[in-house]
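Morning. Coffee machine broken again, so started the prediction first thing and wrote up yesterday's gels while waiting. Chain of 472 residues, entered below exactly as on the submission form.
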Amino acid sequence: MEENQLLNKRITLFALMWPILIETFLRMLFGTVDTFMLSGYSDKAVAGVGAANQYISILILIFQIVAGGSGIVISQYLGAQNNKRASDVAIASIIFNLIFGLLISLTLFIFAGKMLGLMNFSSEVYNYSRDFLIIVGSFSFIQAMSMTVSAVLRSYGYVKYPMLVNMFANFLNIIGNSIFIYGLFGMPVLGVKGVALSTVVSQFVGLVVILIILKKKVGISFSVVKVLRMPKNIIVDILKDILKIGGPSAGETISYNISQIVITACIANFMGEDSLTARYYVFNLMFYIMLFGLAIGQATQIMVGHLIGAGRRDEAYKTCLRSLKIAAAISFVVAIVFAIFGKMLLGLFTDNESIIEIGGLLFIITIILEPGRSFNIVLGYSLKGTGDAKFTLYIGLVSMWFVAVGMTYFLGVAMNLGLIGVWIAFAMDEWVRGLGMLKRWCSRAWEKMSLVKKEDVIKIKAGEEELLHSLN
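Came back before lunch.
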C-alpha cells in the first residue's frame, strides 16, 4: 500500500513532464550537436549524416514495438496494482529488444551501402552517409536496450533517471566529437567517422549506467535466465499485450519515417542540394518546437495508462483534454519565437544565404503546423495509453501517404512551390491526423481497449477493501 501511494505521487503531469522534457531535449541534442559540430567541417557531411539518421530512425523504430508497448502495458498493470506481472513484462521486454537490436545491427552492417544507394545522392554525400550508418547502425542494439529500460523506469514514475543518464551521455558525446573533429590531444581528424564512434561510445556508457539504476530503484535485473524460467503461457500473454500496442504504434512511426524518406528523395531529385540541406537544418530545429508537446504527450500516456488500469476512465478522459490544451498553447507560442529568430538560428549552422532565406519562410509556416502536431502527439499518445493503438495507425497511413506525400509532390513539384509546398503539406498532414484523433477520443471508443480486464480491477479493489477492514 505504501509503495502504491509513493507511485501515485510520482504519476502527476508536472512530476512526469519536466524530466521527460529534459530527457527528450537531450536525446534530440545528440543529433543537433553532431549537426552543429559537423557544419564547420562540411555542409555535405551534414546532409550525409542526416540521411543516415533517417535510416537508423526507421530501423530503430522496430525497437519501439517492444519499448513503447511494454511501457504502456506496465503502466496499466501498475495502475491495477499487479506488480508481479508488471515486473515480468519489464524483464521480458528488455530481452526481446536486445534480440531485435542484434538482428537490426547485423542488417545495417551488411546492407548499409545498398540502402543508401536508393537515395541517389552525390558521391561525397553518399560516402559520408555510408560511413556513419555502418558504424552507428552496427551498434544500434545499444539504443534498443536503452530505450526499453528508460520506458520501464518512466512507467514506474522514475523519470528523472533517464534524464540524468542522457545528460551524462551527451556530455561524453560532445567531448568525443571535439576530439575526433578538431584533432584534440593529438588524435587524428576523423570527421564523420569520429562523430559516429563518439555517439556509439557515449550511448554504451549510458546503457551500463541506466541498467544499474533499474536494479537499484525498481529491483529488476537484466537476466535471460529469468525469462527462460517464466511459464510459456505467461511469455505468450506478455508478447501479445506488448504487440497489441507496440506493433501498431511502431507501424505508424515506421510509416511516417518511410514517407519522410520518399519526401526527402523527392526534394533531392527535384529541388537541389540547397533545399535538401535546408530541410535537414530546419527539421533539426523544429524538433525543439515540438519538445513540449512530446513531453506532455508521453507524461499523459503514463497517467492515462495508470488510470485505465485502475478503472478510472472519466479521469483519463479529462486528463488527456487538459494536457491537449496546455500542449497546443505552448507549441503555438514557441513556434512564433522560432519564426522570429529562425534566420538567426540557421546562421549558426551555415552562411549559405539561400538556405537561410528559405529556412526563415519554413519557420513561418511552422506557426500553423505545430499546434496541429500537438493534437496529433497528445491525443495519439493517450489513445495508445488506453490500448487503442490501431486507430492511430490507420489514420496515420491514410494521411501520411495521401496528404503528406501526395501534397508534397503536387504543391512542391507540380505547382513548383519547392520546400514551401512541402511544409504546407506537412501542416495539412498534422492537422488531418490531429483532428481525426480528437474525434476518436471524444467518441470514447477507447474505453473497451484496456489490457487489464474490468473483473481484475474489481478483484483488486475488493482485496483492498478487505485489507482495510482487517486493519481497522
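Residues 160 and 454 are 32 Å apart (CA to CA). Going to sketch it on the whiteboard this afternoon.
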